[in-house]
Amino acid sequence: MRTVPTRLFPRLVRNLAMAAAVSAVLSACVVYPAREYYGPTVGYAPPAAQIETVGIAPVPGYIWIGGYWNWVGGRYSWIPGRWEAPRPGYRWVAPHWEHYGRGWHMTRGGWRPR
Q: Left (φ > 0), alpha (ψ -120 to 50) or beta: where does 17 sit?
């Protein structure tokens, strides 16, 4: 077993005390997940959703992904719905707009794990 030379002992104690202090401070931190905002803040709400004709799925088992308003070129632009194959172990979350702070923010849609 090795021993610490006497001249290094104060430095070792100081480093251990510093590590304990940093650990104590960091253990009190609370981390919140960031919002998944996409794009700029828009000063007014999006229009009402457009009515879409869904029709028949091109392949049995496909699911309909509804359209949504996106912000493109300084204005709202409708992105039409589409048919997609389901993804095992995932669920579809539609993109949507939320009023937060000084305006409206878009939250991305996409496939999320179940």
A: alpha
Residue 89 in 3-state DSSP?
coil
Let me know if 12 is exposed, middle or buried by CB neighbors in 10 A (0-12, 13-18, 19+): exposed
Rounded CA-CA distance 67/82 in Å is 7
Q: Whole-model pTM?
A: 0.65
Residue-wise pLDDT tens digits, 31-88: 444 556 667 899 999 999 999 999 999 999 999 999 999 999 999 999 999 999 999 9
Own/partner pairs for 78-85, CB < 8 Å, 24+ apart? Answer: 78/50, 80/52, 81/52, 81/54, 83/57, 83/58, 83/59, 85/59, 85/61
Domain boundaries of the chain, sorted by first residue = 37-113
Tokens of 27: 């253990």
Give 106's strand partners.
Answer: 38, 97
